[in-house]
């Protein structure tokens, strides 16, 4: 269960060493939003610095009410009593797996922590590929098949987890797929866990967003947080909307929460109670962030396509999951770990290899996180955020050139000097 | 595993309801330090409000170095690389049980979360009473016996957990007992987990404090935090000093931490990096707090003794664990849960029944937390903290009278009107 941490750490340490010795590095390995704290949030934290009580395990009432309002504004009727907050949605996901029990169906690839958490609670993750061209949810027919097979072997399967939009692929599952998954979950009596931490960062067309909770609020848990939309990853605050009338699940989850983390940091809860009301100044910040994430992710996408990779266009968040297989990469690169190591060692470019997301080690896929391209300082990041043309900022344009240079090393020269370009179409990056 | 949370919640809700309807309540149920945040800590939190990165799982280097310094000043050579911080020492304890593996030996009674955590990681807690007159550590001979018996049955026993000073009894294990426990742990190859979160709140005679880490730094994990000494419970920050050269345990613990909580809230880490250096203004605050906790705990002790209970004199923290068995209580009270319910319902006094600490449900023992007697407002609490005679403050003196009144209801009137007083000697409150 330490793979992800170690892989991330190793990449981080190597990048820091290189940066320390004056080398040029490009950090595409970390899923941090890469933007400064909004001043209104800083002010609220200062104001809340006198709050030192433990408070309720589920979170202070003002926070739970604000989070309920957040979901209400997205068309989802929410009882504040069924909102549970934690120190990050990660901790809530762990608590949910423990409280729901049984094995969990996951998309393949999917965020590193799902499978690791499942193993920690002694559940078996059942990893299934997404429908062609999608990412973040397993193909519904295969879910039915796999769950029935597992149950026939005497296993208990309790839940199905999806990520909307997805990490690592940056894509959004189609409404039709969500509908089919809900139907399968109903037939098989599975709890659906919908990780919607990147929801506010869908680049366009928010109107088209369909959460399984919209269709099956009685069996869907939605998780979110402020780590991505407001770049508060280090503040550790997340929230879960439990299924309607799921008081038993709530009791179990609070039992877990009370024995592991007690409550999120109280001053942070006070800030979150304000943030989840979505005042105009924070809405504007989210809109700006979404625009910047989309612009830079699309620019990186274009570079990958130009280099000959197969990669789905980014729809949300700040990730891409290119497949360099079409290039047949280079003969010395046999696994995505080799590919990531080469990019790091030869080019100072940090990425995460696909195998940490549960993908086939031999598939030449890596995750690129594009959010640390906005600059090394708060000043540069704010400039990027405010810019109508962030790609023209010299530090961002340099970083993109650095990436292009590294990617060009993956292209196999052909006799006559033409490059392999036949795989530049969008392909099924998210399927296993 | 939800018992403790539910019991606490139930007491809290009933107390709040009563307070809401204007009734007089006395909250002796909660282990919160009951003091305001020191202004220097508030300032540091404001200054750190721009920090939003995730940072290292083990905590930022400045924090780990400061925590190492904290232990160095207590005579314990500490490598900052072997310090791991988390959102409260509770989360670290959970991570340690998971990382060490196997069953865990616990004192009986002991803090509610140890046994609950053990069950959550599917370990079996082995609860053993303390030596007569002590609390917070199991009797060493019985540890050897129980571990050998468990192993003979094929069970794995990985660790032994002690609390110095203890919650719930407020007492401190004698150095001789610590020595014998270390010897047993060496013979049986057990990791010792020493929960020292109340260490700075030993009322007197700090020089006499012996940690198992002083004797066996190669097999002892020490945990601490800022929840008790600096009343920052709601800020969620704890630290663990791993055994010398325990790099493998560190890797495992960081694997758990990275998959459950990522890191403590970054602004709080910045504050803790300052607090663990123990600047004069915070040292003074800890000295004042220790004095107040001791004064009030001793006053409550005297009231319990006067009422005829058997109870060890408090040595650290803000707890007492009186035994009302000598009074044979009242015939309608058959369990400590009955006793706690009667105190709550009839007198508005909230306490925790001994059974939540793993004690015998029929033993008439309850835990009294004395730290919420200092006042309802920050102003009153600061007044109490600064007072040379806090017991004379009207709100504290009223609270003590309220307690005396409730305790008097436990005394069985005898023919001739004399009270049962024959059990006013200190007794073995911490043994099972």
UniProtKB/TrEMBL annotation, chains A, B:
An example Gene Ontology molecular-function term: pyridoxal phosphate binding
Cofactor(s) required for function per UniProt: pyridoxal 5'-phosphate
Sorted UniProt keywords: Aminopeptidase, Aminotransferase, Hydrolase, Protease, Pyridoxal phosphate, Transferase
Sequence ranges assigned to domain Aminotransferase class I/classII large in this UniProt record: 25-369
Enzyme class, broadest EC rank: transferase
Gene3D superfamilies (UniProt xref): Aspartate Aminotransferase, domain 1 (3.90.1150.10), Type I PLP-dependent aspartate aminotransferase-like (Major domain) (3.40.640.10)
EC number per UniProt: 2.6.1.-
GO BP terms: amino acid metabolic process
Stated family: Belongs to the class-I pyridoxal-phosphate-dependent aminotransferase family.
PANTHER family referenced in this protein's UniProt entry, alphabetically: ASPARTATE AMINOTRANSFERASE (PTHR46383)
Entry protein name: Aminotransferase
